[in-house]
Specification:
9 strands; 5-stranded parallel β-sheet; globular; 194 residues; alpha/beta; single chain; 43% helix; Rossmann fold
Length: 194
C-alpha cells in the first residue's frame, strides 16, 4: 500500500503580513516569534537606515546604501518598498519570500502600512494582521521610552502613527500587543490556522 503525502504538507502556506503603527512592537513580537517558533520563516527587510544598537546584518535587516536599494527596486528584486517617516527606504526582498512559500513554510513579513498595501495589491491571498497597541497613551509611552529617536523624530513618528492607526480596518484581523509573549502566540496560532 503506497502512502499518500499529507494534505497539510502539500498545501502551500499563506503568507502572513504583520503591520501596525510605529513603536507598537512589531520588531519585538517578530523577534519573539523568531526565537520561540523556529517553524516560522521570518522575512528580513532591506533598509537604508543605520543599524540601531544590537541590530545585526542579515538577522534584523539587510543594511544597504541608497544606490543599492535603488538598484534592487529597479531590477524588481523587492516585493514592496517604501520611504518610512519621510527619511529611510525599506523593502522586502522578493526571492526569499517566494522560496519560503514554495517550500511550504509558514512565512511572516513584518512591514509598515505602505508596504502592506503594496503586498495586498500583488498577493491579495495573504493574511493581513494589524498589530495594535493597548491604547494611544501606551504607544506614546513606548516610543518615548525606547529612547532611539530625538524629539523631532519622535514627533514625526507620532504623526505617522495617527495615520497608521486609522488604517486598522484595512486588515483581516487585529492582534493587540498588550503582552509580547501572548501577542506572538496569537500571531503564530493565526498562521497555523490559515
Amino acid at each position: 500500500m503506497s502512502q499518500q503525502p499529507s494534505e497539510a504538507l502539500d498545501r502551500p502556506h499563506r503568507l502572513v503580513v504583520l503591520a501596525g503603527p510605529t513603536a507598537v512592537g512589531k520588531g519585538t513580537v517578530s523577534a519573539y516569534v523568531r526565537d520561540h517558533f523556529p517553524e516560522v520563516w521570518l522575512s528580513v527587510s532591506a533598509t537604508t537606515r543605520a543599524p540601531r544598537p544590537g541590530e545585526q546584518e542579515g538577522v534584523h535587516y539587510h543594511f544597504v546604501d541608497e544606490p543599492e536599494f535603488a538598484r534592487m527596486e529597479r531590477d524588481g528584486e523587492l516585493l514592496e518598498s517604501a520611504v518610512v517617516h519621510g527619511q529611510n527606504h525599506y523593502g522586502t526582498p522578493r526571492h526569499p519570500v517566494e522560496a519560503a512559500l514554495a517550500a511550504h513554510r509558514m512565512a511572516l513579513l513584518e512591514i509598515d502600512l505602505q508596504g502592506a498595501r503594496q503586498v495586498r495589491a500583488s498577493m491579495p491571498e495573504a493574511l493581513f494582521v494589524f498589530l495594535a497597541p493597548p491604547s494611544w497613551d501606551e504607544l506614546v509611552r513606548r516610543l518615548v521610552g525606547r529612547g532611539t529617536e530625538d524629539e523631532e523624530e519622535r514627533n514625526r513618528r507620532l504623526e505617522t502613527a495617527k495615520v497608521e492607526m486609522a488604517a486598522e480596518d484595512e486588515f483581516d484581523v487585529t492582534v493587540v500587543n498588550d503582552d509580547v509573549r501572548r501577542a506572538a502566540q496569537e500571531l503564530v496560532s493565526l498562521m497555523r490556522s490559515h
